[in-house]
Amino acid sequence: MSDQTLSNLLKEDRRFEPPADLAADANLKEEAYERARGDREAFWAEQAERLSWEQPWDRVLDWDDPPFAKWFVGGRLNAAYNCVDRHVEAGRGDQVAIHWVGEPVDDARDLTYQQLQDEVSQAANTLTELGVQTGDRVAIYMPMIPEAVVAMLACARIGAPHTVVFGGFSSDALASRLVDCEAKAVITADGGYRRGAPSALKPAVDEARAKASSQGHDVAKVLVVQRTGQDVEWDADVDVWWHESVGQASTEHTPEAFDSEHPLFVMYTSGTTGKPKGILHTTGGYLTGSAYTHWAVFDLKPETDVYWCTADIGWITGHSYIVYGPLANGVTQVLYEGTPDSPERGRWWKIIQDLKVSIFYTAPTAIRSFMKQGQEIPDQFDMSSLRVLGSVGEPINPEAYVWYRHVIGKDKAPVVDTWWQTETGSIMISPLPGVTHGKPGSAMIPIPGVEAEVVTEEGEAVPNGSGGYLVLTEPWPSMLRTIWGDDNRFKETYWSRYAKQGFYFAGDGAKKDDDGDLWVLGRVDDVMNVSGHRLSTTEIESALVSHPKVAEAAVVGAKDEDTGQAVCAFVILRDEAGDGGEDIVAELRTHVRKEIGPIATPRQIMVVPELPKTRSGKIMRRLLRDVAENREVGDVTTLADSSVMDLISSKQSGGG
Ligand code: WT7
């Protein structure tokens, strides 16, 4: 973000007070901040009491060997029991847990907590029968159907950590994750619906399984939900239909309590190198963090609210704010399979109207695309049930914030801009809707229990009105425990930069405004944020150079009105590829889609003769970003050959 935009942002002076009725009945009050600061561990212990523990902990936090934390040490619990069974035992078995809305109109299904308990138990029995044991990893590659939630909870129930891979990822991406976590089984579907058409998933699993085998890892079983009825290839030794196994299994299953630190799941996310990081979350702390924040930040009233988070379960938001947090809190929620505008542009608003959604959580990129379509579409629907609106994934620009609040929330529902990461497991910085006033564009302050700071390169807190690096200064229950199989990378990536102070380095730049409120500005490393999805520049560069015509590639994230950032690639072709042919750009875009997935497709690919490098050979992405954002190219004095930028710029004006 340029300094100019930044100072405009910080001049934002609109303020929205919490609605009086919400404030009067708020779950957390102002005093919680002080109380948490007074005795942080006692505060977190109080939050952990939201869960049902089979055995209580004897120590809240073990931080004797930082950065390896243990929370609620000695405690034992079962995550699925907490998300399902205990609500049934409390007499709420008939309450709808999930209003599932399929993309094809009228394809909908409600699941009560009792039904969820039955299905999760059946799936748990099936997994055990297929040979999955406590501690084995299970990959989940599914569309947004109830079985996806059931699959996750069934894994949790038997203590088999899941790794959910976003259904939009390619077979290559799936294969590398299967190998990295040595998944014993995969749960998938024949396909899902996307913009009105069935879209296959099973073939990608078949390919990924073959690729994993060639790299020495065999997946033993693939459990397949029949969703679209499309033809699939079948390997009778490996493939098992869900309806023929889970559908026939016993609904009786006794959940076993696991250690608080038992691995719950691994979620892969992009880092600064080409290899995705498997972020490990464990049971007690993660569930405490997701349940507490979901209750506090959305001011959840489980008896009356209807909650809807539009994320996909393939991302951390779907884990913490569709599956674990909301279900641990016993909510009634919406689960929607499809795209926002299928079959009509008002599809989301119709769902809110029909199901009387009261809490709605989505991403700025979606809000911006609705803004473009205009207010007339949402205005056709009655959305007066909405009382809290959430935003996540990237900074929300003030225009989008105000539009969201005004057009969707009718100036009545406050917007909470929630900052967090795959690694933090749950929301860290956000207003509380009944306590904090709203400031368009600011995530405001850490929630009670969390300590964050904006610091200089040296780790000193910056004064109000200045910017620096965002750090978390104290451990929190839902923090990642490590990177799967790579403790060193865990230490190096998050804890080495401020090792002296013991701060967690988030990788984001931030600014404190004159009131001390936080503005998260975006990544300071080689990670991009495209429509709220995290992508690594290096990963896309590796994909590009794996194409036979490409010699070298550099990728930058350039500012984009719709997606926040967009992928812009600069490539040098191999000599023997000549000019690459007319369709070279299309060919490379297809190649990246295939290697990683559609979300990584470059918006723009420029074929260039050289890349700007320092004398030590490091690509100066800053300069490429100037080109991609149509700015005057900045300081080139540290380039090995300063004429390179002229070559690239002339290429660009020539239409490159
Ligand atoms: C990165 C984490 C958190 C779930 C979705 C993304 C950016 C996230 C905000 C926000 C500004 C935000 C940060 C962060 N980010 N939320 N409210 N304001 N930036 O999770 O894929 O792990 O990405 O997303 O850059 O580091 P993720």
TrEMBL record:
Residue ranges of every copy of the Acetyl-coenzyme A synthetase N-terminal domain listed in the record: 30-83
The protein's name in its UniProt record: Acetyl-coenzyme A synthetase
A Pfam family recorded for this sequence: AMP-binding_C
Reaction(s) the record says it catalyses: acetate + ATP + CoA = acetyl-CoA + AMP + diphosphate
Annotated PANTHER family: ACETYL-COENZYME A SYNTHETASE, ACETYL-COENZYME A SYNTHETASE 1
CC cofactor: Mg(2+)
Family: Belongs to the ATP-dependent AMP-binding enzyme family.
Binding site for Mg(2+): 545, 547, 550
Keyword line: Acetylation, ATP-binding, Ligase, Magnesium, Metal-binding, Nucleotide-binding
Keyword Cell wall biogenesis/degradation: no
Source superkingdom: Bacteria
GO molecular function: ligase activity
Known role: Catalyzes the conversion of acetate into acetyl-CoA (AcCoA), an essential intermediate at the junction of anabolic and catabolic pathways. AcsA undergoes a two-step reaction. In the first half reaction, AcsA combines acetate with ATP to form acetyl-adenylate (AcAMP) intermediate. In the second half reaction, it can then transfer the acetyl group from AcAMP to the sulfhydryl group of CoA, forming the product AcCoA.
Post-translational modification: Acetylated. Deacetylation by the SIR2-homolog deacetylase activates the enzyme.
Residues bound to CoA: 194-197, 317, 531, 593
Occurrences of domain AMP-dependent synthetase/ligase (ranges): 90-476
InterPro entries associated with the record: Ac_CoA_lig (IPR011904), ACAS_N (IPR032387), AMP-bd_C (IPR025110), AMP-bd_C_sf (IPR045851), AMP-binding_CS (IPR020845), AMP-dep_synth/lig_dom (IPR000873), ANL_N_sf (IPR042099)
Region Disordered, residue ranges: 1-22
EC number from the UniProt entry: 6.2.1.1
Residue positions binding ATP: 393-395, 417-422, 508, 523, 534
Modified positions (N6-acetyllysine) in chain numbering: 618
Boundaries of every AMP-binding enzyme C-terminal domain copy: 539-618
UniProt source species: Nocardioides nanhaiensis
